[in-house]
Specification:
By secondary structure, the protein is an all-alpha fold. The protein has 20 helices and no strands. α3 crosses α11 and α12 packs antiparallel against α14. The two termini are 19 Å apart.
Length: 516
């Protein structure tokens, strides 16, 4: 497949997937906002904190138990599903056994530790201990179904059925949020909300199992151990296991520390802001998911072409995601004022700024981590996370202890900045034979453009029209047009050609001769 053809095909696939995903996620966000508003207003901030604490525990255990198996699944299914279908069946059965045993073990451990969590870890302000125990038991035990869900979604991605992941996840998120909103609007209590979250979690895993049985086979879902599979994947998976275990420390430490140092209500507010901003990463995640199987196959069959595609996709993430993340920040204050209150919105303004910046930095590094994992060299990520464990975690602990939510947000910017300084030079020189200046120039240029274009625009909107949402959107739109004109002249030549071929209306904006 030619270079431009690949991009066109990729974007068609992404458009078909993301079109539904963007619509669905927008509806999820809208319904989620309604739920949050009523939870915060009617049930109290502790209830919000308890719900998000349960989700945090699920994320911690899920990430810890992933152990690189999800990426192994994607890589193996993408490479061998057509040529060795019997091997893929055995692989699926082995991972099914591991994940379901892990789920049962963690649920039992969670139940045993729950009295300690309620009495000695979280800080409640309004909710009774007994009620907190019940709610955590209901939501926590079922939200941990995300553990076996990893294995099922990995099979879908490996078979390049990202559309199924999007449809199932978004549909159930809509059902979940709509149900919560309806219960809260009709005055139902926290127990009804908890049971509803539990029911939808169970139904989601059931639907995933049905779908995987259709695209693979029912036999593939039967838990069964295979020694031959373990021998075949152990080298690659052991490397990724360390990446997974180290990542769980980095990715969840901010929430864990907030849940200990601050009232549980603060965890709810912080995680609500964090997850709301993370929705802006839908395009980043979709591109990385689509690219992983291709890079994995490209390492064996067409490495040179694969590298060209890497740099085009890298440019898309560096330059193309900026307006999305900036929009999130522009709208954060009026949205949080409406959902929570003005005081809380002011408190969140700086944390949201740093969180938005950190999610952009994550987007710029996403393609690189996807590439090295896909080509079977996760040692780059292992070394990176070992380095960050020493030089990032202690600083994060101090920042969160001293500054609370703001410190947590700042720690993410520090984490990605330090990580980029460590991994970019190594990967660019060893794998691409290019100067890391290419990456740093691109990201540095974007930061300068944000400071020159978006910051003055945001400042003028808030100073001269402080209460006007229309003026805020107007200033954002003007800034984005200016940024887009500049950005299209900064991306690589091949990406420019692809853009112009598919969007001829953009041709007059191209004023500079580009690099190859």
């Amino acid at each position: 497949m030619g270079l431009v053809d690949f991009l066109i095909t990729t974007f068609i696939i992404l458009f078909l997937n993301i079109k539904f995903d963007i619509f669905g996620q927008s509806l999820v966000i809208l319904l989620g906002f309604v739920s949050i508003k009523y939870i915060y207003a009617e049930l109290g901030s502790d209830a919000l904190g308890i719900i998000y604490f349960s989700l945090m525990l699920s994320a911690v255990f899920t990430a810890a138990l992933d152990m690189g198996l999800s990426k192994t699944t994607i890589r193996e299914v993408a490479a061998y599903n057509d040529s060795e279908p019997k091997y893929i069946i055995k692989l699926s059965q082995t991972f099914s056994l591991f994940y379901w045993l892990a789920y049962v073990t963690i649920v039992l451990l969670f139940i045993l530790l729950l009295p300690f969590i309620v009495n000695s870890w979280i800080n409640l302000t309004t909710m009774e201990l007994e009620q907190a125990y019940d709610i955590l038991l209901i939501i926590g035990s079922t939200s941990l179904l995300a553990i076996p869900k990893i294995y099922l979604t990995s099979i879908c991605i490996g078979m390049q059925r990202i559309d199924a992941n999007n449809i199932i996840d978004v549909t159930f998120s809509i059902i979940q949020q709509f149900g919560m909103a309806m219960f809260l609007i009709n005055g139902k209590g926290i127990y009804i909300v908890a049971y509803w979250l539990a029911i939808t979690s169970i139904l989601k895993i059931f639907i995933y199992m049905v779908f995987v049985s259709k695209i693979l086979s029912i036999e593939a879902l039967i838990p069964k151990f295979s020694v031959s599979v373990i021998k075949r994947i152990k080298d690659y998976t052991v490397k990724l296991m360390w990446v997974s275990l180290l990542l769980v420390v980095h990715k969840q430490i901010d929430k864990v520390l907030i849940s200990k140092f601050l009232p549980i209500a603060n965890l709810g507010i912080y995680m609500f802001a964090f997850t709301s901003i993370s929705k802006a990463s839908i395009i980043t995640g979709s591109i990385a998911q689509a690219a992983f199987p291709y890079f994995s196959d490209g390492e064996k069959n067409h490495k040179k072409e694969s590298l060209k595609k890497y740099f085009q996709l890298q440019d898309i993430l560096i330059y193309g995601t900026v307006p999305v993340f900036i929009l999130v920040f522009f709208l954060s204050k009026p949205v949080f004022t409406f959902l929570l209150d003005e005081e809380m919105s002011e408190l969140l303004q700086l944390p949201v700024l740093f969180l938005t910046l950190s999610f952009y930095f994550n987007a710029t590094l996403r393609m690189m981590s996807t590439y090295v994992s896909a080509i079977g060299k996760p040692e780059y990520l292992i070394d990176l996370n070992k380095f960050l464990l020493i030089f990032s975690i202690p600083i994060s602990i101090i920042l969160i202890y001293k500054l609370g939510m703001l410190g947590a947000a700042i720690s993410w910017v520090y984490y990605y900045t330090l990580g980029a300084m460590y991994i970019v030079p190594r990967v660019y020189r060893a794998e691409f034979n290019y100067s890391p200046y290419i990456w740093f120039r691109g990201v540095g240029t974007v930061i300068i453009l944000i400071c020159l274009i978006y910051v003055p625009s945001w400042y003028m909107a808030h100073v001269f029209f402080p209460e006007s949402l229309v003026s805020l959107i107007f200033f954002y739109s003007i800034s984005t047009v200016i940024y887009s004109i500049i950005a299209i002249n900064l991306v690589g030549q091949e990406l420019q050609k692809s853009i112009i071929n598919n969007l001829p209306i953009m041709r007059p904006l191209l004023v500079a001769h580009k690099r190859g």
